[in-house]
Specification:
Blueprint: H1 2-39
């Protein structure tokens, strides 16, 4: 029973780590997309 509880704690910790990593990657992607949009030349009118 203790091994199962430890395994659950380990998996929960891994889930938290992966969620944080995913959040960081999503923020980086969003920042890069905004940067690319700002670098575009204005459309001719």
């Amino acid at each position: 029973m203790r091994r199962l509880q430890q395994r659950i704690r380990d998996l929960e910790a891994e889930l938290i780590r992966l969620q944080a990593q995913n959040d960081a990657l999503a923020a980086q992607t969003r920042d890069e997309a905004i940067s690319r949009m700002q670098e575009r030349e204005p459309a001719l009118t």
